[in-house]
């Protein structure tokens, strides 16, 4: 099978589910057209077989051996052609399914990277996860069914033409019977669409609930709340089950309609054809052909019903994808440039001098986090970087030069060395220096394979303090021009915190570093401390100087203790 296409550049500007499905089909039109061609030929071969069988039966009735051998050879050739076209149709169907499904993964992953911090604010984790769990399957299925669906329409038209040319009443019976069956099924599609959309929403909510429970399981066990949340999950899962049963009810009606309606058409066509054969209007071979055609029509008609079901599911899934693609980043960049220099937030008055180790001590942790977000361009603000406004710089350049590392960052699954050195350019010596600066040597030494140890999902084998130190290692190895650390030592013990504070200045020599913290151990090792209250700079200077001159600062960093 051919390899899947490379990722499409950028994110498509699409605002409707139908347009997204059309865009997906257009991006793979060569394989889609090839698949439709094979599927159409596959159906046509099957549509011709009843006629050939009828001719063979007529040859037997007429005792014409030569004609019998000829039609037997034709039937063998059709069988071989059916086998080949069926094989190629299936191969192209799988290729089309995978292309559509993983193209959806590509564009949603690109959009997630483009949105950055905006995505978790606008959508829940379960909503995004469900795209990769179920929506890509439905979108791929909607592309897959186009192959057989198009071929089935051609097969129905071909059979109708053959029947009309052979017997006008039977041909007209099929010609009008098929649309009537389609109309009879159509009232089921709207409630199916509505119930599928509701079921999809509940599945997303349940996925969010599950991820929350898994992420907070340690806390839940600490307070004895796991049984409460397990009960909530059980209740929500029952809602999902009920919604799934509601979808199944409509789908069962569709499945029943696929049997009953074509069965009625078979019975009518066979009955009328038999009456014609009795009075001698058609030969025995044609009667057999009519019966076989009626039986054959079950396949195309079932395919059309399946197409309606799959396209409905694909439409619902595409609507979920569009919801993600339609989100715009909260902050955008420009096309300007900056030589770097002083980084200043005009609203708060926080100013970072180049190549200095600065700390922000805020009376409210939210104020410090807000300042860090503005300085890192994760939130709008009047921030200048040197002589340029930060809003005028490209986002990619800002992310490369200014790194905001907070405790919301996660460790990912994979080899620890790769998870720490995300850019892949650090030497062993640089890794050792970063581990030493973050006081994380003991963590690596305790691992069975050291830096080659595979980290579990979210680094769950590490304690909160160990994860915090490993995140600090990752931030130091990135070596940005400006590093903003938000409470980097809040979960470590005092001994480790003192060692980290003493080593951080050396590790960041020649670079600009800002630490948001109220820890006296860290504040005492910085070059400059800025005290923020109500979002504004209230005092600044050395740590010991502020302890004597600013009672508010002293109360904040000493927690009101004398």
From TrEMBL:
Signal peptide: none annotated. Keywords: ATP-binding, Membrane, Nucleotide-binding, Transmembrane, Transmembrane helix. The keyword Iron-sulfur does not apply. GO terms for cellular component: plasma membrane. Coiled coil: none annotated. GO terms for molecular function: ABC-type oligopeptide transporter activity; ATP binding; ATP hydrolysis activity. This is ABC transporter ATP-binding protein. It comes from Nonomuraea diastatica.
